[in-house]
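fyi for ur records
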Amino acid sequence: SGRSDYSGVAEYFVEYIRQILQIRFGTDLYRAGLRIYTTLDLDMQQAAERALEAQLQTIESGSVYGPFPHQSYRQYLEQRTEVPDATTGPFTPYLQGLMVTIEAQTGNIRAMVGGRDFEDSKFNRVTQGMRQAGSTFKPLVYTAAIRAGIPLSSIWEDSPVSIEIPDQPIWEPKNYDSKFEGPMSMRQALRQSRNTIAVKVGQQIGEDAVISEAANLGLTTRVPRVPSIFIGSADVNPLELIASYTTFANMGVLTTPIGIVRVEDRKGNIVWQPEGREQRVLDPEHAWIILEGLRDVVRRGTAYSAVVGRGFNVPAGGKTGTTNDGMDVWFIGFTPELVTGVWMGFDKKTRIKANAQGALLAAPAWTAMMREVYERRRMPAPWLMPEGILQADVDETTGLLATPFCPRDKVVHEFYFPGTEPTERCPVHSPFRGGR
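which gave:
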């Protein structure tokens, strides 16, 4: 987009680019007649702006998701016209949001919405913010677990956890519904976002494995060595967190987000062409297994009703996120081509509303945008399973090889990294037990 008459469009992105150029070119930026070509896709940008604002207004209206206990953005604007000199400073008092779309293979930023109103608040929540990831951090935990040789079919107990932390009260994480569902597979725990199991898996592999996995997937912020990181207590940079999901969309290749294609001088010579960085951080087999778990979130997990339930049938995966206190809601979703993340919350951390969940509040904005984008694009080919993967039919209740006696609705087709597949047959359902 070499045109410069996009005033009022993608203002957060334009300012983000200007700051990068300022660092690169200094004062020359304004006198050299430079032409900047960016990665932005205007159609995607406008789809993102529309989808995010529409969903935020729906939440504020209180009509769909129940009472909204705060001033709405519109009410704020009306009141601001009465007191014209009142400035908000860096924090706005109304519900905020961000949305960013990254092309998975290249890292090109196709859309970036850093907030609801650039005139009112120039703070770019995508690039400058630090927020708790909540459950959107769990794929990093499960990636580390899969690399440590734990299969998706391993059985874990969704039951109360209490962890002693030196000089702190005992930590007892709950699930978002405050219930415990008993034993289930790791695949099921991921798609239903069970906190207790994420914590137990994290404890088994250890904090260091998770911290180094976060770094492996491109997070540069410090993740503290505490057990609550397993359910996303660490503050992260939203752009880095969302970009880490390119690893899943690309089956193991992490791409670094990039906003500038090239810079030319007035004669058309290229004076700067930033290099996109991509690196393989997971082998395809491990990547396929975590991808399977993240596709389940959309196929039949927490994001089902917001994505497939709203008629979106492009191959996709993702993860909903809610922080424990309802202050942040997220959905980071991806197709084989595009990774898009949505966050909503208040700048000054406040509980959004009762029963604030990423699945309910954030995911519909993702679907609205992606549906619009894929009206204009070909359906991408689904991901191809790597050669090295082993497959087996297993009893989901035991994680062992299914027999003809296992109930059909408990038999699942599972994928394994070689060496992690079950070798025993399920002993629970056999002709020699019960029934006599």
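The longest strand covers residues 96-103. thats all i got for now
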